[in-house]
Amino acid sequence: MTTTEMATAMRLSGAAAGSYRAHLDQLGPLPDVPAHRLIAMTADAGLTGRGGAAFPTGRKLASVSEHGRAVVVANGAEGEPASSKDRALLGQAPHLVLDGLALAARAVGATSAYLYAPADLLDGKVRTALKERRDAVRVRTVASADTFISGQESAVVSAINGYEALPASQPPPVYQRGVGGRPTLVQNVETLAHLALLARYGVDWFRQVGSHEEPGTRLVTVSGAVRSPGVYEIPGGTALGDLVDHAGGGAEPLQALLIGGYHGGWVPWSDRMAALPHARAALGPYDASPGAGVVIALGASHCGLQAGADIAAYLAGQSARQCGPCLNGLPAVAGHLTDLAAGRAGSRTVHELERIVGLVEGRGACNHPDGTARLVRSTMRAFAAEVDLHLAGRCSVGPLRPRGGRR
Known about the structure:
The chain is α/β, with parallel strands linked by helices.
């Protein structure tokens, strides 16, 4: 990625911090774009949700706008442990997010608005920013729970309605019946920040960065075995090698990247794979996607099988426990993968692991079991050679000390 490309990409991360006056001095006031025009612009720009699902934002706005008395929610929960982009954005440019929330309210005809985020953010710069503004729709704040599933849109609605932040297991979808039983738009805070810039500068401006399939920029949290972990703004479709280089390059030789977060997939690392675009179509064969903008670099000195087992164990502990796949399936999957990583499993354990993963997929009350199953399948596929070594009582990065277990 050239210096010019990176300078052009600094859209969100270059937004003014500080007072509302400084924000207006840099970007100017929000344009008076009619609701129908704003929805059309969003669709033409190809803006997709930055919270993980990548649903077309224009379609989401249009769906909610068809109903009256809507509610809009800026979702900054960011339950994904490896992500910090939403926190960085709310801390650095809260007014950009609030601009986007005001525009979304206009687009769907909302009469109520909420900002849902961790309490420490709400108690700091967000509340200060809200006091400086006089938006047409008053914004209420609700603290998010510190759990992996707290940002799922039906869990967001549940929390705002005064209940536990758990995903709903039954329809209807929130765009039909959400907060207070009203049609509700739940949009990631980064998506709203993009909307605020798109309304000011237009479709052509938005699309002048990124690729045709992945227009615009996105915030990516890069961690793991890189020299400069952090949050970076990159053009859509940036090559993985350029992304790693922007984070200072590998701190040691790399063997894989986990892309898309804990519900993502492992992409094996090589000179050839460094040219792979950070884009849905290119990452699809690896069960990965840009998702919520999470990239974790796994160094050659770490066991990929153990890394996958640790994540699976975390995910099993973060389930909603509202259905059999979460309550029974995920702990069983995590247990078998942990046994395999620890060198206390045989081929029967591998077969049982694959069987239970198959039973879990597509049967959960929410997407959490599917995402966990995807991570486990990806781990077994990306580190297949490591699986064979562990079955033989060895590990590529160090000795194993098997301690009897399920065979």
